[in-house]
Amino acid sequence: MQLVLEKRAERSNTIALVSPLIAIGLTIVTMTILFAILGKNPFLALQAYFVAPLIDSYSLQEIAVKATPLVMIAIGLSLCYLANAWNIGAEGQFLIGAVAGSWIAVKTQGTDAGPWVLPAMLVLAAAAGALYALIPAICKVKFGASEILTSLMLVYVADLLLDYLVRGPWRDPNGFNFPTTAEFDPVATVPLLIEGGRLHLGSIIALLVVAAAAILLGRTIKGFEIRVVGAAPRAARFGGFNANQLIILTFAVSGALAGLAGIIEVAGPVGHLQPGISPGYGFTAIIVAFLGRLNPIGILIAGLFLALTFIGGEQAQIAMKIPLDVTKVFQGILLFYVLACDSLILYRFKLVFPSRQVARGAG
Amino acid sequence: MKKSLLALVAGLLLAGNVSAASAADKLKVGFIYLGPIGDLGWTYQHELARQALVKELGDKIETTYLENVPEGPDAERAIEQLVRAGNKLIFTTSFGYMDPTLKVAKKYPNVHFEHATGYKRDKNMSTYSAKWYQGRYIQGLIAAKMSKSGVLGYIGSFPIPEVVSGINATILAAQTINPNIKVKIIWANTWFDPGKEADAAKALIDQGADIIMQHTDSPAAMQIASERGKLAFGQDSEMIKFGPKTQLTSILDTWGSYYIERVKAELDGTWKSEDSWGGLDSHLFAMAPYTNMPDDVKKIAEDAQAAITAGKLHPFKCPVIGQDGKEIECKGGANLADGQILGMNFYVKGIDDKLPGK
Prior knowledge:
Chain A: It is a multi-pass membrane protein. Chain A: The chain crosses the membrane at residues 12-38, 63-82, 94-110, 116-135, 147-166, 199-217, 246-268, 280-308, 329-349. Chain A: This is ABC transporter permease. The complex is a heterodimer. By secondary structure, chain A is mainly alpha-helical. Chain A has helices spanning 13-38, 42-51, 57-82, 90-107, 117-143, 147-167, 201-219, 221-231, 233-238, 243-270, 281-291, 296-320, 324-346, 354-362, and strands at 2-7, 347-352. Chain A folds into two domains: 1-40 and 322-363, no CATH class; 69-321, Orthogonal Bundle (ABC transporter involved in vitamin B12 uptake, BtuC). Helices cover 72% and strands 3% of the residues of chain A. Chain A has a two-stranded antiparallel ribbon with strand order 1-2. Chain B is of the alpha/beta class. Chain B folds into two domains: 18-131 and 255-278, Rossmann fold, CATH 3.40.50.2300; 132-252 and 284-312, Response regulator (Rossmann fold). Chain B has a six-stranded parallel β-sheet with strand order 2-1-3-4-5-11, with helices on both faces. A six-stranded mixed β-sheet of chain B has the order 7-6-8-9-10-12, with helices on both faces. In chain B, helix 5 (98-107) links the parallel strand 3 and strand 4. Chain B is globular, with a radius of gyration of 22 Å. Classes of the chains: A mainly alpha, B alpha/beta. The interface between A and B is large, with 46 and 45 residues.
């Protein structure tokens, strides 16, 4: 007798709903064992990870702040991935957006420029992110270059450009030559939503982006086109849908969203342009996109959930003196179980009995 | 409901760790670390200092640290988390935490902050750093004596003044022994990335360098130098076990006495905002034993160390000639002024390279 995975005739919608819960359950069981081995009280540790951040208004704000760039980027990426276009370079588009928007902030610094500054920064950042994403998209459409490689490599170009600017022309003249621009003026800063907190307007923009994507995918022909081109390219061709045009479109949209996320992060929580403005948001967003099953609402939940594990991890470090490595193991185990459980949507376990196995073995 | 749940958790926590009464009385001291505590370099030295602090004052304080905190938007949250967990004195141990520390400091005027290597201060935010360029000067002397090829390999982290002044001090010292000494510089653009640091060391050796110097935090370069039979200097911590036949000396960050002093001040209620910038005459850094060199070189190093400690020798004694051959304005009398060293953004003559961003 043997246990094998067998492909289902069609995807199971029940499992699609239940599998994240199974994954979380398995993670909790595994982590309980791990905490017990480490000599920590598993109940308290899980409490620090999952519950403590959710019952405190400060932590809730921080979760939203952390999730904002992740959700915005992931929504854009999901459109690409649905259309079978593989934008891996959101990190670069994020940085270019941050750089382009900061250009206005730096140039208007100390002048009496009015309230047009921030909107102009947002628009320019989105445009720059879109244009930057168009480079790999056009290379793909015109020359057949792998967009996975080109978009990824452009991340390093953006990183070095940002580095050059903050060490050279845009360096804070009063900053002892340290690599950062001066703090942005108030008109170039994303307004806070709650006095004394860090929650900012960007989180509202992220929610609007989620809503817009949900409408685009669920209610418009363009959204239908994106899904058909990705799921059934041949059918899409017969339907007269232009796959190349969609690659261009989805790359541009995802680049724009990543660029927007970039400037919001810089003009919001950071307050100035410096190297290291992104702890890998563009890459983490890929995980968020898939964790959210490329569905806008799913991505919102996944982004918030991943943010929760970051904040909870910090609280566990402080309250329980649990090392950071355990937090990373925790995140890794969680992703592992989520992906493993997802295979149950398309496959199911089946017991195979010896007689049939012999027949198969003979073949 | 919220409160009672929190109280329950807090109670359980305290019961689990230490007795509730003593924990409530203890001063809570927090640390923000850039790398993992196991980086065996920068963060490791801060962690050793924290352990020394606990050993000295453990009955009066409780310490907490957060490691691997990126120098971006996450730093502000991490610092604030420590404040919210009740820490009253918080050490943020990397340059990139400067603005986040300042932001949190303004928000919580009753909490005291200590920021390493920065230049922004406030009434509840001190800064502390060390004059490592003094140690670099000694290394420059040793390197020039020990190098057969006359080419030094230098792994830089970021071209900020602290690192640039270290390169300049090295070369100025080396030139007193070998006027034609050459230095190859590779910017790793990271403080801690053993892979990149190892690659940089390999590239430098391939370009003819036979002495490897580093301003990055891991022992990776030391290991490469050891494998290739070259000599090297450690950084931040004692790295001799990674190159018993390789390490000449190492600049050791010894924050312990500073941390103990500041925490004592906090306990006494005498803490006030200060700018501490200590040299070899302070306890903020030390030189590891001089090893793998002949006695005459060792003597040169020891003499230089004694002279610097006594204030008789200054690495940036005027005149200092810039890369363009022009003399640097001497704002500190006989030597460059502290401000010129803290903001150093030029190479001295003899460095055949271009400073990034210039």
